[in-house]
Amino acid sequence: MTPIELVYRNWPNSELVARMLETIAEEPGKLRSLDLSHGFEYEESLVSIFQQKQVDLAANFIGPICKLLTSNTSLKRLKLANARMGVTSFIPLASVLPDNTVLEYLDLSYNIIRRASLNLLLTSLEKNNSLREINLSGTDLTDEDADRLQSLLEKNQTLQILDLSENDDISLTHSIWDDPRVIGFDFESFDKQ
Predict the structure, then answer these.
(1) Whole-angstrom Cα distance, residue 143 to residue 94?
(2) Percentage with pLDDT > 90 across the chain
(3) What is the pLDDT of residue 66?
(4) Which residues have C-beta within 8 Å of that of residue 10, sequence separation ≥ 6?
(5) Whose CA is closest to 80, among 40, 20, 23?
(6) Are strands 77-79 and 4-7 parallel, antiparallel or unpaired?
């Protein structure tokens, strides 16, 4: 059985991706890596039509992804960068992460993570023992969010890398940067400026 690494970017619509994921879920054990980053280029017009800052376009395919996470025993990498995930996408994702024992890398970068979404994510990650790396770069996190992430790092010893780069509202003096597992701010290059 050959493992599958699927990269599917700039796809025409999320319903097509949902159907594709449902097909993949019928044969668990093959998918090793799934990258659906930057997938809403063609659906960008929806944002301007509704005049909203964040439309949860990921809601159409998050169900099939969660089905994959529960049935597929080989999916180790999941990239959902810039997928316009809203709270309705985080609810099912957070529900499957505590019991998932295979996923090692989760990229949620460049999704605007609001407090409710972060709460769901943190609660699920406290119980997860497989994730080694999480990318939360460019997610508009604040010092208060960093406090809560720091609390997570105290509880979850499995997590080895937490990428918080490009979160400008986390102050440079926040103690989260002292944790060697947190990456994102390069103090050495800052000192040279």
Answers:
(1) 22
(2) 45
(3) 84
(4) 38, 39, 41, 42
(5) 40
(6) unpaired
Could you read off the pLDDT of 136-187 as tens digits, one per residue? 999 999 999 999 999 999 999 999 999 999 999 999 999 999 999 999 865 5
Contact 85, 117 (CB under 8 A): yes
83-96 pLDDT per residue, tens: 878 888 889 999 99
Q: How far apart are CA 97 and CA 121, in angstroms?
A: 8
- Assigned CATH for 4-192: 3.80.10.10
Q: Give the three-class secondary structure for 35.
A: strand
Residue with tokens 């105290």: 154
Hey, what amino acid is at 107? Answer: D
Please provide the average confidence, as pLDDT, over all residues in the chain: 79
From the number of C-beta atoms within 10 Å of its C-beta (0-12, 13-18, 19+), residue 187 rates as: exposed
Are the C-beta atoms of 35 and 6 separated by less than 8 Å? yes
* 161-163 and 4-7 strand pairing: unpaired
Angle between helices 115-127 and 143-155 (to 10 degrees): 10
Give 43-50's long-range contacts (Cβ < 8 A, gap of 24+): 43/13, 43/14, 47/84
- Written as six digits, the tokens of 23 are 């097909």
Q: What is the pLDDT of residue 190?
A: 46
